[in-house]
Every structure is written in C-alpha cells, then in structure tokens.
Structure prediction request, 415 residues.
Amino acid sequence: MKADREIAVPSADWSGSGLRRAPRRRWNELLWFLIHPASRHRTALTMPGLVLIGLALGIGSAAYNTASNILFITLSLLLACLILSGVMSWLNLRGVCWRLLVQPPLRAGQETPVTLELWNRKSLLPTYGLWFELSARPIPPGLPRAEATIRATSAEIRAAFARSEQATARAVLRQRERLDAGAQARLDWRYTPQRRGRARVEVVSVGSMFPFGFLRKSRGLQLRREVLVWPAPVEYRFTPTAAAMRSAAGDRIARPGWGNDLLALRRYQAGDSHRLIHWKASARLRQLMVRQFAAESAEGYSLWVENPPGRWVREEQFELMCRLAATLAEDLFTAGQLSGTKVNDGELMAIRRLRDLESFLDRLATLEWGVGSAAPAPKSDAGVRPSPPRHRITFAPDGLRGAAAYLDGEKTATA
Prediction:
C-alpha cells in the first residue's frame, strides 16, 4: 500500500461518503442514525464484543445484588467502551472515498492488477484498519431465459449456486497502514480470469473493527467495473504449405529495402555498411557509392472467423479456435503480415494499427458459441459468385478435440 497526494479534486469515478457534504443533523437524529443506520449499513458483534456483553451482564447482576459502587463504575466503563467502539467505527468510515481501477486488456489465464484507491477527505481524523471485499465473476452471454424454479429440487439449486460460486473469484484487501487526513492510499489485487468473455469486477463491501474490535461495522457498496477478457494464447504447430510459401516469397517493388535486386547507386552516408560500397563505381566517380536494393513486398493474410450452425459441435473446440485465432492474429501483426479480419457476417476490417487488432480481439472475447452465421459470398452482376480472396485463413475442427487453420483450403496450423 502506497500513500500519495496527487489528486486534489475528485473525479466522476470516485465514490463514498467523502464526496458529499454531510447534512446537519440534530442530536436526536444523530442518535437515531447510530441506533438504526441506513440500508446496507450493518453493525454486528464480534466474539470479543459478545464476551464483553456477557461480562457486563455478570457484573451488572453482582452490582445490583451487592449494591457496590465499584461494580457499578466497572459496569459503566464496560458499556462506555462498547458505545465508544460503535461511534469510533462510524467516524472511521466517514469522510473516506474510493475508486476501482482495472487496466485493460485482460487475458484469460494471466494475472491482471486490480487497484483500489482510497482517499481520506476528513480534515483532522485519520483512518485505520479498513478492509474491502472484492469479487470478480464472468457475465453469462445474453439474457437468461425466465424459468420457474419451483420444480427444481434442493440438490439442483445447491449445484447451481456451487457452479456460480466456483466461477467467482473473491479477495479481501486490508489497509495495513494509517491513512492520514487528506492522504491517499492504494490497495492492489492480482486477479486471474479463467476464460474469455465479459467479466464484472466489483467491491462488495467495506468494513472496520476500529478501535477495540468489539463491533464489526460494514457497509455494502455498488462499485463495479465491466471489462472484456481476451482469449488466452495457445501453442500451435505450423505446417508449411504451398500457399504460404508463395505468399512469403513476395514480389519486388520499386522502393528502398533489403531485397536481392539492385535498385540504384547513391552516395555513401554515415552509418552505411561497408559491405554495400560499390568499389568500381566509387573509383570511377572518385567518391564512395553504395548499392541500394529493392524491397520485397509480401501479401498479407486475412483471418476469417466463422461460426455457422453445425460446424462447432463441441464448446471446447470452439474455445480452442478462439484462442488459436487470437494467437495467429497477434503473431501475424507482429510480423507485419496481417491485412484484415472478419468475424461471421461482419465486414472485412483492415488491420493498420494496434487499435484495429485490439478491436478484433474484443470481438473474439464476446463471440458466442452456437450463435453466428457465415455470410455467403456476394454475387456479381452476372449472378456468379466471385472467387474468395487470396491468402484467407479460415478455421475448422480438427478431430474431436483440436482446431485447425486453413490457408486457401490447405491446413497450415493446428492446436
């Protein structure tokens, strides 16, 4: 946890009681608020608090039976400690605001930092010992179909709750150091999403047992962020094909590069390799001349991810295909050979910069199994379907468990 004072004015993503000025209450309203707090505010007794109340009952009984002033004073001190614990716990949470930061992109199977920033906007009192309960769970695609649960057995209901709880990641972040008035702090959580799709990261509640630990003061929160989880990278086996070799060979174009064809001669400049010096031309012209070669251009590949009905029968193979498509897209983009992408019946999107690749990965993150269609090839004016574009990579199941990528109809990669 690190403290800083960088932010002076709260932005729109901050929340908490420290953002708004508390209304002026009379003493009876304040007392009623402490006894009967608002909704989502809970005050519960801890084990030391139960022991304290039991001890107070015992001392109170002995005080009334013996009429001892010392026992009455002891009982008053115990009850004062209990009341003071509740008031100090309420003041500890008051005037503190927080915000949740999740830095995209998120990848399935990889750790992602989730940051919770705190800001104590009180003018005098510091804040101690807060804890925050966080949870992250995948958002199921689409809207669930309404069903009557009156017919479900108790075992089926327990199994449904167990599946939901198994897919939910939970964490408790604790404030270890004192948060002075006007200071800020940062709590970090390493969250690892299990699968691609949409995920919701939220702060469930904030609590405190300051100062004595007799009462557990907690408050429910509705601070959440919805993020996209990209498919996890996968190892694949590359199989050279004739189409891949023809595409990798490339054509010569008339611009400077590092090909094999001589384009022109130019004067030597600082930093040129000595191996490029043309000695005969340099001797004839009485100045150093270097060879300038023509560049080679290789046609880029386009990835076509299609989900027609009946192709992807097993969900595991469909998820593997999404991982293979994401890995191939990143590898081809790094090599400068990714020209475009297409998902189902959408338009062919050109890939020119990193943001275009991220848009394609966002679409892969939200692609649903069994929902989609492959658009037929457009017809020309004569009614004849044109031939598919060259260097198109498509995907299909490979056996019962694998997925394969096909370049112009020839298998070129398997996972």
Q: What stands out?
A: The longest strand covers residues 251-267. The chain is about 25% helix and 35% strand. Confidence is low (pLDDT under 50) at residues 2-8, 248-258, 378-387. Residues 118 and 355 are 32 Å apart (CA to CA).
